[in-house]
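Worked example

This section walks through a single chain of length 110. The input is the sequence exactly as stored; nothing has been trimmed or padded.
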Amino acid sequence: MATHSQKDAYLYKKVITIGTVCELTGLSERQIRYYEKRKLIFPERSERGNRKYSFSDVEALMDIANKMEDGMQTSELRKEMQKKESKRYDNKLRERMIRGQLNAYFNKRD
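Given that input, the structure is written out below as tokens.
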């Protein structure tokens, strides 16, 4: 049976072209490139230099566009993204520590 992360792996594969992203989001190539320049989105590049996006990038772009429409500045969005990433890192670290403590406890009992 596939794990949760394996099932969601397709969300993060960078396989979508900028043209398709434009169709999916309603954003122009210029807007998408601007968000990349402002370090809000991080596409990969193909061997030919074409941008490649994932489904999670598409979701992020839609979220960015909605927040920009509501008046948020790109600097505010970047700070928000950094806070989320920091929180995600802290949660993973906490999870590893707890797992380690549980392993140590149960291994000590054997």
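What to look for: The mean pLDDT is 89.
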